[in-house]
Fold:
Amino acid sequence: MRAPEGAKARDYLKRRGLDGQAAKQFRLGYAPASGQALIEFLKGHNVTQDDMLAAGVARSSDGHPLRDFFFNRLMFVITDGRGRAIAFGGRALEDDAKPKYINSGENSLFSKGHHLYNFATARAAAIKAGTVIVAEGYMDVIALVRGGFAHAVAPLGTALTEDQLHLLWRTTPEPVLAFDGDAAGAKAAERAARLALPHLKAGYSLRFVFLPKDEDPDSLIGKSGPGAMTLLLEGALPLSDMLWRTLTEGKDLSTPERRAGLERDLSALAAEITDAKIADYYRRDFDQRVFERFKRRQVVRRPDGGRAEPWRSSRPPFRGKAGQPRPQPGTAEAVSPAVKASLLARAGQAGQEREGALARKEMELGALLLEQPDLAHRHGELLAELAFRDRSLDRLRHELLNLAASGSSLEKAPVLTHLERLGMAELLARLGVRPTPRQPESVPEDETEARFLRAAADFRAMAEWEPERERAFRRFAADGSEESWREASRFLRPSHE
Ligand code: UTP
Ligand code: MN
Structure:
């Protein structure tokens, strides 16, 4: 890194906000582009070619001379629990290079599912802080440590394994896993949650944090500072909340069959838990949530605008970073203005994401209506309630309702011709419908109707969400209290759409 040919890597680090001090602290290096640098160096130290190959730092392809395994990459050292180097990760210096990261292959020292990046250093900090943060990447760990979270680790390019979970539990009973705020992050979180279920034991669990969309801990800390991360960590979801949300969020559960389906899925989750006592508590917890959820459903429909299912947190009290006094809940300094601002920005993002999902859902409804315009006849009342956001889509809805009300035929072909005459050809194209249909397609009518009803139910559930969110954030922005933070924080989560 410090040699002349390391200039590229030094520039790269600088662009990512890391200085020489950080490079030293994290033992970052540079693998030169020649592909021979390490081999030459090791030869000078009398290391045999066989050992170079066995350690995974050189590779051979038949007939050709050995080459360095890593070249032209920024290098991260992976150590065992005692801080001894056992493998490397290497990041490409160009953003479009593929693969972005490569890691040492498995060998007698290194098995990627058994180790965690930065574990040797983080362990003591984790024990002291009473918590450990599991991020997704090397750069996240570095940003976290520099932001004051010395207790940060990451898996090594794979999903969390059982062995890693046990390593984490040796430092602290409730590791906090941080995931990207997108659909992939939600999936990864669910996978980690399911992985943990058979291993839960008294006192030991996981908690979950979701980053704002398109952010990881590195970028969040870069833009909003460590305070934003602290705030997210404070809102970390207990495992039971995470599982409940996975199964209920954004879903319409208004029919007895769907409710039964939910209860079946919840009890399947509880059955994954090996510890009988914990399994029993999970069953009770889920039963209670089901009860609360459906009890409250009626409250939602009250004409006086009562709130929908306030989020109840069962999270344990937050244990802050070592040595940092934690503000008392309810006091004015509990939420700093800067953090408040970043939170509100984040809320806007979550809102946009939801809006996108809503827009897709109404397009789906439009397409289904054109597939079978007669739905406007059979489900006129339902359709009358679905106010679409997109102007031309909403106009389509009105036209279909008008046709249904006037008793006109709702055959597909004449309806399409009629809509085209009204100047809606562009919308029809957008919905992927040809104005003059070819042979009628063989989608069974019942199936289209079922899809329509499902989509309509989803649409309504999603549309209810947004005003709730707005209200919670306006309240939080106004008083900044701990209580309204807790209320608002339930809207800071990724959409599962
Ligand atoms: P990400 O793709 O999320 O990258 O990979 P990142 O951590 O944000 O990295 P920067 O900020 O772009 O530099 C997360 C982790 O997944 C593994 C690496 O361990 C990486 O740190 N990974 C990613 C790979 O092993 N191979 C890849 O091609 C990409
Ligand atoms: Mn990143």
